[in-house]
C-alpha cells in the first residue's frame, strides 16, 4: 500500500512486512510511527515483521519500537536483519529473525557437497530465555542452560552441557541425533518422540540420543561405534 | 574521583536486592566513601524503609527527573552515617515516569559529587529493569540458591550481556549450610557452575536480616553480625581489594571444596 522512501509495507501470510532498510534509524522509526498514527485503524491488531537491513539495533531500541507499536495494539513478532547484533538481540527478546519457510520443502538439509550438510554454529553459552531455531543442523560451542531452547529440523550437537530444551528433527526427520558432552536436557525430543525425563544428578559422559525402531535410545559416545 | 555506578538486580523478586543495596551502601559509607543509593523501584519503593529513612522523604527521583527539585534536595542524608544518602523512588507513579536516559542524566550529575552510586533495581525484565541498567558501570546480580532464582538470574545475565554492559558479578544470598549439606539446597558451587560469572560474595541465611530490615537498621551496622560482615567483604571486593572467601559453615570448619572454587576471586 503506502510507498515512501523510508518505509515500505506489504501484506504477507504472517501479517504485515514493514521494510525500513535505508536512512538513520531514528528517522525511520519516527516515519513508521507517523504512518501508523495516520492509519491507526488499518494497523490495529496487526502482526508485524520488521525488516531493517544491516542496521545494528540494541535491545533498548528494539524494546522501544515494540512498546511504541504496542500502543497501537500492534505486535512485533519478527525482525529481519543482516546484522548479527540485531539478530541476537531480537532473539534475546524472543522475536523471530526469519520468516518461516514453507513446509513443502522435502529436504530440510541442503547438501553443500558430497559429504556435508549445512549447520548453524553458535559459539556462546545459551542462557535462560535464549532460543536458537534453524532448519539446518545446530552446533553449540558452549553450554545450553535451563530455560534456553534449541529447535532444529536436523541434528543438534552441543560441545558443552545441554541442560535446556532440545528439539531435533522437528519436521519428523528420524535420522536426527542429539549429542552433548553432558546430556541433561530439561526436555528432549527427536521428531515426534519425547524422551523420558533425565536424572538431574550423577556422573555424566558425552552421550548421543537417537531414534531406532521408533524407540528413544541414548548411548555413551564412542567413536569406534558404527551405527 | 568520578563515582562508579553499581546496579543491584536479580530478575526474581524477594531474593534480597534491596537488603543488599542498603547493606553495601552502609558498608561503603562506613569506610569513608560518599555513597548515594537510588531506589529504582518506582511505585513500590522500599529502600527508604530498609534504611530507616522513610519518614524523611520530601522529594523523590521522579521530582528530580521532572525538574520539581534539584538533585541535592532529593538526597536524604542518613542519621547514622555522614556520607550516606538516599534518593527515594516515587510511591504514587509507575516505571514509565522515568526513562533510561533520565537515569543516565541523574547519575552523570551525581558522578562528580560522590564516590559510589548504588541503584536498587526492581524485579522483572521490563522498563524498570532497563532504567536501572542503563547508567551502570557494574552490575551485581543477586540470587538465592534456588532453582527458580538461578534461572531468572541466568536470564538477567543474558540480557545484560546483550546490552554489552558489565562487568557482571554474582552475590549468592541466603545460603543455609545445613540445608546444602543435606543436599536439599543448591550449593554455591552449583550456582557458580551454571551462571559462570565472577562471584563477589556469599551471604548466609540469617534471621537477624529480617529483624534489622524491619527496624530500618541494616545488619552491616552491627560489627558482630555474620551476614553484616559478608556484606562488608563484598564492599571491599567491589573496590578491588582481595578478600579471601571464608566458609559460611555453622561450625566454622573451612570447606576445602568451597575454597577451591573461590580461589580466582572469591569467598
Summarize the topology:
The complex is a heterodimer of chains A (227) and B (267).
Chain A: E1 8-12, E2 15-19, H1 25-38, H2 40-43, E3 47-53, H3 59-70, E4 75-81, H4 84-92, E5 119-122, E6 131-134, E7 137-141, E8 149-152, E9 156-162, E10 165-168, E11 178-183, E12 187-190, E13 193-194, E14 207-212, E15 215-220
Parallel strand pairs in A: 2-3, 3-4, 5-7, 6-8, 7-9, 8-10, 9-11, 10-12
Antiparallel strand pairs in A: 1-2, 11-14, 12-13, 14-15
Chain B: E1 4-9, H1 17-30, E2 35-39, H2 47-51, H3 61-65, H4 71-74, E3 76-77, E4 84-87, H5 100-111, E5 116-120, H6 127-133, E6 138-143, H7 147-162, E7 168-175, H8 177-181, H9 188-195, E8 198-204, H10 207-215, H11 226-238, H12 256-262
Parallel strand pairs in B: 1-5, 1-6, 2-4, 2-5, 6-7, 7-8
Antiparallel strand pairs in B: 3-4
Helix pairs in contact in B: 1-11, 5-6
Q: Can you describe this structure?
A:
The complex is a heterodimer of chains A (227) and B (267). By secondary structure, chain A is an alpha/beta fold. Chain A has 2 domains: 8-92, Alpha-Beta Plaits; 119-220, Pectate Lyase C-like, CATH 2.160.20. Chain A contains 4 helices and 15 strands. Chain A has helices at 25-38, 40-43, 59-70, 84-92, and strands at 8-12, 15-19, 47-53, 75-81, 119-122, 131-134, 137-141, 149-152, 156-162, 165-168, 178-183, 187-190, 193-194, 207-212, 215-220. In chain A, strand 12 and strand 13 form a beta hairpin. The termini of chain A are far apart. The model of chain B is unreliable at 249-267 (pLDDT under 50). The A-B interface holds A 58-60, 63, 67, 88-89, 92, 125, 127-130, 143, 145-147, 163 and B 100, 127, 130, 134, 147, 151-152, 154-155, 157-159, 161-163, 194, 196.
